[in-house]
Fold:
Amino acid sequence: MASEATSPTLSLKSLLSQQIVGQVTDFVVKYFFQIVGAVVVLAIGWWLAGRIGVFLTRFCEKKKMDVLLARFIGSGVKFAIIAFIVLTAINILGIPITPLVAVIGAGTLGISLALQGPISNYGAGLIIILTRPFTIGDMLRVGEFSGVVEEVKLGFTRLLTEDGEIITIPNKHIVGEVQTNSKGNRVVESEVGIAYDADVDRAVQAVQSAILSVPEVVREPAPQVGIDRFGDSAVQIGYRYWVPSRNYFTTRFAVNRAVFASLKKAAVDIPFPQQVVHLKNDK
Structure:
């Protein structure tokens, strides 16, 4: 009796299994070539998009185009090709594209409202790439932050400081703000005081020679040295020179040391502040 009771159940499970296997087999047989075709199109299209993007980037760089603009063109073309390939693969699978495009268009509005911050960064990044107020390798200062431009993306810009710190600034905080771009070099302004009875020409020559003795100092434009102002206890000799942005502090410290040694060697007195007090004796 037990075997008779269980046999209908086993037969039903076997029948369901056969139906499921049959449906899966029919699906695979019917859509096999479509699935394979979609996968092949995606693989080839993805590889081709990457190759075309790299080719356009290098081509634009060879034509002396700005690095940021060249990368933007290469990346833009790459993503455009990938989007086209994805739509083509979906069409090969037999999925209608028109409703999908309508859904994407309707969802774009909601997404744009929810992502106003990132979208504003992307818009600002696009402005930076198209207007090119700075490029990779420039010394940029925005507000209290400064460093060498290492990377510019649609959403952010990365600066590298001389200490090796990486500063990531959202692009919306760059566009519309006051920017100081020192390009590849940065100016150093300093001064040193000499005694009023010292030989000014000898002091200027000593400072000039000291600056040029440091190899990292840029020769063009040439350093500038002269009397900056007259202080209470000393004549202030001002000097300006340009150094590579990546070695700003290292070169500045080396020049200060060279200036001190050169003035000492030239026997130019560097005075310290003094006050003369007259005592009046009233009887």
The chain has three domains: 13-114, 134-181, 185-265. The radius of gyration is 36 Å. Confidence is low (pLDDT under 50) at residues 1-6. The beta strands are 139-142, 145-152, 156-160, 166-170, 179-181, 185-194, 224-230, 235-244.
